[in-house]
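Example A, followed by Example B.
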Amino acid sequence: MASDQDEFLRATMGAVDLVYNLSRRMTDRRQDAEDLVQDTFLQAFRAWTDHRRPKRVEPWLATICLNLARSRYRSRAR
């Protein structure tokens, strides 16, 4: 498990700023953006440990972030 964590961190930490900037554009509050980043990386790590690893990490994380933001927007709209 530790090697999965290390691999995940090495592969994804370069994309933190990308995910944060994307989430700031899609939320009104800084706290919501931070929650969205945290949820994005949590969901990505779960997929990573299930051996669903992408060839390109940045678009993969951006897609996860966008999908989570859309889901949150839809939930709040109801």
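Example B, a separate protein, is given below in the same form.
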Amino acid sequence: LSPGTLRVQSGPIHKAGLRVPADSRTYLWFLAQEANIAWAMLRCKIRAKGPMRLILVFGRCFPS
């Protein structure tokens, strides 16, 4: 795929590179950009399982 394109397929394609377990309230705050990711992680509201660099771009996948 060229940069800026998206391909959607049915079912799992690859193993997830990042898992973000969080309670629903914190997760929604994060997605709405009302909670700082560093604050949430320091208070164990959000835990990233995978490369930390991916958590920085994760929020951009869900613009508010």
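On Example B: The chain has three helices and no strands.
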